[in-house]
Amino acid sequence: MSVLIVHCSCAADGSAAAIARTLVEERLAACVSVLPGIRSTFRWRGETHTDEEVLMLIKTTAEGYPALAARLLELHPYELPEIIAVDVSVAHAPYAEWVAHQVGTS
Question: What is the pTM for the complete model shown?
């Protein structure tokens, strides 16, 4: 089983908490950690912006990723959300099994 950590930044307006809860309740993610205090600087539509954000670290599986990404696009308030999946090459086996069980891919 392949565990992924999906990085997704979100506005620091509380919307990440609702997204996290939905992803876990719908069994698309085993866990979502929301890290506060992120400051992102980026170019958007020809202008440079700096925004206060939070970072969601979403734990899922490679098999569950397509459904998670589709749902995240529906829930996210941004026009173009950051959705970056990183493959976990080594994980504590019982934790990896728990992730797979939670997202129904075990």
Answer: 0.94
